[in-house]
Amino acid sequence: MSIMDALFRQTARLSATDWLIDAVIAAGAFGFCCLQLTLAVNLIIPDEFMRRLMGIEAVVPSALSLLVIAATTLPLVVRRKFPWAVFVWCMASWGLLQSEMNGIALSVAGPLIALFTLASVRSRGEAVVGCVVACLVFVFAPAPPEQSRILTQLTLFQNMALVLAAAFAGYALHEHQERTRAIEERAVAAERSRESEARRRVEAERVSIAREVHDITAHSLSAVSIQAAAADRLVDRDPEAAKEAIAEVRRTSKAALEEIRAMIGVLRTGEGPAETAPTQGTDRMADLLAYLGGAGIEASLDEASYNRAVVPAFIDVALYGIAREAATNIVRHADARHAAFALSTAQEGSATLVVDDDGKGFVPAGAPAGHHGLLGMRERARLLHGAFSVAKSPLGGFRICVSIPLSQKEESHD
């Protein structure tokens, strides 16, 4: 049943062009055999005396000979639909009708094409079986009674060589088609894998963003809930305190909205360390130092003057993101051996990050902002109304300085 199913699938793919090609091949084989029947002997042995000496008579095409040739060639029209049936028919017709050809060997073009088709569309084992069957038919088929022994042996040798060539050519085509099909299937599978991986990454990023936004804004929303509950309790017995609680709710909610807006602005994942981990704050600066150390860069961190408790979470996240991009640039572009990070809130009302390295390729502050990822860092600072500058470092390379005000400008939403 599986063989029949495979055969049906094979033929179901045949188009009108395929059928036309098979019809042309069958007609061409028929014409070739007719031409060989009438001309081959005279072309090979033009002398009539030699033909008589070898026992070969001039061939005159008759209705019977044309019928015999048709029996071995015209079924090739359906050779790809019924490869085994056509092969068996062509071989049997050739073997049974060979003795009727009045002293001349019948052309094997039809059986050879059938064998080639069988080897190209079926398995290797079936191709071997077909080749063996063809050889046996050619060996044991009765020779025309008028044909000489020498010519019979020459014809048999020729036919055996043609059988092997046809079977090998068909099998080679089959292997080529199988390899092409396998390559196409692998390409399709790889494309599906890439699409699946892209969907997985998008989903993971969605989960990461949701977790990050939740971590940053949860404390603000909790404060809003607490202040709203207090206002509800005080609205009747202490209106002034209730108003103050409501004002605090307004300030906290606006700060929460600002954090969400800032979070969207800074979620620009770089190529630095731990880029697939949830975005966190400067408490992960040790990861940057380890990342630089793994790249052969000696790094230090000075955060003695940094009071993380007074820095809003979204500003802390922005500073860490800028530090991470700076670390990535140092590894990829600076060719540095030393790097220094400094965090500070000593300056009144602002948080400052300074990154120094002893690498090469210093670019003045007026250089294009997109140089080595500076655009991303500048945008992060600008989004939070901060200052961003690039200067020559005392270490000899870059100095990146970022200062972000802790009290963000209040925007009108009317």
TrEMBL record:
GO MF terms, alphabetically ordered: kinase activity
Record-linked InterPro entries: HATPase_C_sf, HATPase_dom, Sensor_HK_TwoCompSys, Sig_transdc_His_kin_sub3_dim/P
Keyword ATP-binding: yes
Start and end residues of each Histidine kinase/HSP90-like ATPase domain: 318-407
Keywords, comma-separated and alphabetical: ATP-binding, Kinase, Membrane, Nucleotide-binding, Phosphoprotein, Transferase, Transmembrane, Transmembrane helix, Two-component regulatory system
Positions of transmembrane segments: 20-44, 56-76, 104-121, 127-144, 156-173
Enzyme class: transferase
Ranges for domain Signal transduction histidine kinase subgroup 3 dimerisation and phosphoacceptor: 205-270
EC number: 2.7.13.3
Catalytically driven reaction(s): ATP + protein L-histidine = ADP + protein N-phospho-L-histidine
Protein name: histidine kinase
